[in-house]
Design a protein that fits this description.
Length: 160
């Protein structure tokens, strides 16, 4: 029995570094696989967050367009006070919600529209018969600007 003991002890010591090396390679591979998986999920989350932000901006633009459309309809019907309230809501939403999420040329155009706020609100408060046409012009420019911004964001790589 004693001759078998030294033999098995020699075998254990020679295979022990091999076992450690194998365990280290397996552990490293598992850690690398985990890291790759985490990075892939992070990229998916980033892409999903960007899609949500884009959808939110599009929803805000659609709501503002609807509010401005309501102002145009009310002004055309001679209900200037209701039109003024809708126009005021539109400009407040434009400043607080749409302007911060827009950049480049569309943002410049939105700032130009925002600069017209006081004159349009005043014209509606005075029941100016030219105000429906002015509001309609703002609505057309808003649609063109939002459409241009949507086209710009669709050209960004990775955006569906």
């Amino acid at each position: 029995m004693s001759p078998a003991t030294p033999n098995s002890a020699a075998r254990d010591t020679s295979s022990s570094p091999h076992r450690w090396r194998s365990a280290l390679w397996i552990g490293s591979g598992a850690l690398l696989g985990l890291l790759v998986g985490v990075l892939l999920q992070y990229a998916r989350v980033e892409r999903a967050q960007q899609q949500v932000a884009d959808a939110s901006a599009a929803l805000q633009a659609a709501r503002l367009e609807a509010t401005l459309s309501a102002a145009v309809i009310e002004a055309q019907g001679g209900r200037f006070e209701v039109a003024r309230q809708h126009a005021s809501d539109f400009y407040t939403g434009l400043q607080r919600r749409l302007l911060p999420v827009t950049d480049g040329a569309p943002q410049s155009e939105l700032r130009t529209m925002l600069a017209e706020r006081d004159s349009i609100i005043t014209a509606l408060a005075r029941n100016d018969p030219a105000s429906p046409g002015t509001l309609e012009g703002v609505l057309i420019r808003l649609r063109q600007t939002v459409h241009r911004a949507a086209l710009d964001s669709s050209n960004v790589p990775g955006t569906p």
